[in-house]
Hints:
two-stranded antiparallel ribbon
Amino acid sequence: MDDSRALSNVPGWPIPCAVVEVDEKLVLLTGIPQKYKQIAWKQIKDRSPGLAELLQDPLLKAIVTMFDAEILVDAQFAPALPVYRPLRTNKGIS
Length: 94
């Protein structure tokens, strides 16, 4: 079963959420310089209004703060940002 379809049936879940593949191109939205943040924000609003709405949701912001989390999105939504490459160690991805 497609995970994004399964999650879209959860009451209160704003949008479908797909499982991320290892080689999927993602961009990091948190902790980037303000000038890039403004460019990325315009691209996200233009390319995916639903994602833009989700990123402004106070509950998402609270979760990110609570878990000191990073937000990564598909690179197609903010192509001006570099593709995220996690650091690798001899034990795998750190």
